[in-house]
Write a structure and sequence with these properties.
The protein is mainly alpha-helical. The chain has a two-stranded antiparallel ribbon. Helix 3 packs across helix 6. The longest helix is centred in the last third of the chain and has 37 residues. The protein starts with a helix and ends in an 11-residue tail after the last helix.
């Protein structure tokens, strides 16, 4: 577990450090490359005056449609962590840090499942769109590290132990084995504790209970608002790109030799912020952080990430 924690913490430190380098343009050549990788294939045309992207190492790309892989990894891997987290809830009793961590994992599971649905059935990836392989690998590792960051150390230890067992036996089927009636009953009891905690922040008393309840309830609400708005704007953007009238208009312009044009979304947060779907993601992740911190788990878990 200690070794796994070091790997996860190391990833977050590197992730944060590279983000600072890119945003502040601290290393011009590297910063430009990192910003281009962060776009993951978006806005990658007409933005290369020096012709740098014609160099071989810029051409190591994968289809932009592989974005869906991130959410496949997130759904499956977080499901493993969540299963162990629910079991720990039942075994740890009413410890708010354990139950709060499981609630944070539950919220993330719902979020990443929605994103998988949107990526597979709602979003319309630009034909021929590519993203750099570095951005792709960072995305995959990100969705491996988040579930381990959200999981309580007890659940994380169980996950790491199951991975070691699966490697030793040579089958990923052992990530959840042995699944028996006892574990299933414990997971069900843990789910009930998580649901109760989401509404009552039980396990504390006095001022601590008030502050914990405020953080948890506020966090769940922020997560819900962020998810609802992000889905709304992803649907709106998909309709701009994939609507029948829009397709006919774009095809007509392309036949006329006109430059590519993009629809301008209107309404809601589109009138207030430049990227409402990203603003919504910031809000929902802030909600998950509030839940983790409100349960007393933040210092050991999500704050590290």
């Amino acid at each position: 577990l200690i070794q796994a924690s070091r790997v996860v913490n190391g990833f977050w430190l590197i992730f944060f450090g590279l983000s600072v380098v890119a945003d502040l343009n601290l290393v011009p050549g590297l910063s430009g490359f990192l910003r281009a990788v962060a776009k993951r294939g978006k806005d990658d045309e007409g933005d290369d005056p020096a012709g740098k992207r014609r160099r071989p190492w810029w051409q190591v790309t994968v289809p932009h449609g592989w974005f869906t892989h991130f959410y496949v990894v997130g759904v499956l891997w977080n499901a493993v962590a969540l299963f162990h987290s629910l079991i720990e809830c039942a075994w740890a009793g009413s410890d708010p840090s354990v139950v709060g961590a499981a609630l944070a994992s539950t919220l993330f599971q719902a979020h990443v499942t929605r994103r998988l649905y949107e990526s597979a059935f709602v979003s319309i990836h630009r034909p021929g769109g590519r993203m750099h392989v570095v951005g792709y690998l960072i995305g995959v590792v990100y969705y491996i590290c988040v579930p381990l960051t959200l999981a309580h150390p007890l659940a994380a230890a169980a996950v790491v132990g199951s991975v070691a067992d699966a490697r030793r036996r040579g089958s990923i089927a052992y990530l959840l084995e042995p699944i028996d009636g006892t574990k299933l009953d414990a997971a069900a009891d843990g789910a009930r504790r998580v649901l109760k905690f989401a509404f009552t922040a039980s396990g504390r008393s006095g001022v601590g209970a008030l502050m914990s309840g405020f953080c948890v309830a506020g966090g769940v609400y922020a997560w819900w608002v962020g998810n609802a708005h992000q889905h709304r704007y992803h649907v709106a953007l998909a309709e701009l790109r994939g609507g029948e009238k829009r397709r006919e208009y774009v095809e007509k312009k392309e036949r006329e030799g006109a430059a590519k044009e993009y629809g301008v979304p209107r309404g809601g947060w589109f009138e207030r912020v430049s990227c409402p779907h990203y603003a919504a993601e910031v809000l929902l992740y802030a909600g998950i952080c509030a839940v983790a911190c409100g349960s007393g788990f933040g210092a050991a878990g999500i704050a590290t990430g």
